[in-house]
Amino acid sequence: MISLRRCIFLLLIAFSATAQQPPDQLYPPAALKADFRFLRKQLETIHPALYRYTSRQVFSAFCDSLYHEINHPMKEQAFLSLITLLHEKIADGHTMFLPSEAAMAYYSSKGRFLPLLVTCRDGKLFIRDNGSLNKALQAGQEILSINDMPTDSLMTQLVKRQIRDGYNQTYPLWILQHYFSAYYNFAFGQCPSFRVQIKGAADTQTVAALTKDSIRLLLTPDTTAEATVLYPHGNENPGITLSTMPDEKPLAWLKVKTLDKDQLKATHHQSYKTAIDSIFATIRDSGYQHLVLDLRDNQGGDFAPGCYLLSYLVPRPVTYLYGGKETRLITPVRNRYTGRLFVLINGGTFSNAAIVSAYLEKYTRAIFIGTESGGNKHIISGNARAISLPNTHLQGFISTTNYLVNRDVNDGHGVMPQYNHVEEEDAVKKVLVAVMAGE
Question: Burial, 148: exposed, middle or buried (Cβ in 10 Å; 0-12, 13-18, 19+)?
């Protein structure tokens, strides 16, 4: 199951040594219209549920309206900004459109971006960290406008261009929280500098656009306090960890960053099955009766790792996915975990991580904390096929397969936590302490 994070990683890394020229070629309307017709045909031919959330009639009319807007020459970025408006109508988080390989190579090596990390909260935009040389901008400040565009208008334009499953809004916001500067460029083009208006400030601040490497050097070092690590030892960048909070000794905290076993091996130097077996053996031997399963920001991965994790948590045999070649029976392991389970989710809990969350919601007594999972809990599409538009060479990934998670009526949403809109780490811990104290 290909995820947004993996798509961007592959395009940025795999092509970082290729073309270094800015993508500023102007394409005539005839070439752009040919690309759009090609894209529309591919969607109608390949996608297994193109009209799941938007009727054929409405989708067709929307495509016609976009086609009529192609009446003047455009650069690649402007054309991408136009076709990504389809994301909201398709509403499939595994079907997406991204810049060409050459453009991604340029963005990776020489592209310049807004050097601010941001947080999207309650329809507002706040600075999370400052990677610019203008130190008047501080974490926590609210941004009222960027380049004279009010934040509410800016966010409306960016959100509607993001992929999502169904009617979900947490995944688009999660994407922007993690890739805001890149998607600002994709939507509005590159700028040599940015005018940033801050709430309560008399003057508008100007910041120079910087390369991603320069921004990384200027960001504040992460000083997050470390928990007591139970597993693994000696791995500086683990993808799966078991910790305990120093002030909450009965509580074990299992963080699973990815269900992509290849990424886990290559990036985090861990074997998925070995890690899960070792962690649950530690939980059993240590007698922990409160377990936090942290699936926040987990973009999913392979089906088998999700099933294996569920085998330690579900109380009885469970059918995993219905009516396809991925259908299988999950049988609980002999020494499964039987204590209290808390599951942390957010908009980045996507694809197979969202499927795992859906099964934990349906078949266990887990208490969910966070925000709605980014992935749909009823049915998703995936197994995307890559395409390249003939003239602009914009990249597309189009789902080919439907996966039925359960037979409930699809409401177009993910798992809704019992304790919703709990995002800050301190707030999460307060909820955990309060629930455990109320037993």
Answer: exposed
Q: How far apart are CA 60 and CA 65, in angstroms?
A: 9
CA separation for the pair 345, 59 (Å, rounded): 31
| Cα 22 from Cα 104, distance rounded (Å) | 10
**Beta strand spans in 165-301 (E):** 193-198, 205-208, 228-231, 240-244, 251-256, 290-294
- Domains along the chain with CATH numbers: 4-218 (2.30.42.10), 228-377+413-437 (3.90.226.10)
3-class secondary structure, 24:
coil
Q: Are 71 and 422 in contact (CB under 8 A)?
A: no
DSSP 315: S
CA distance 388 to 343: 39
DSSP-derived 3-state class of residue 126: strand
As a whole number of angstroms, the distance between CA 80 and CA 102 comes to: 14
Q: Does the structure show a pLDDT above 60 at 7?
A: no
Please name the residue that has the structure tokens 């078949």.
Answer: 363
Distance CA 262, CA 150 (A): 42
Instruction: Render pLDDT for 388-398 as a digit per residue (tens, 0 to 9).
Output: 999 999 999 99
Nearest-angstrom CA–CA distance, 383 and 386: 10
What is the pTM for the complete model shown?
A: 0.94
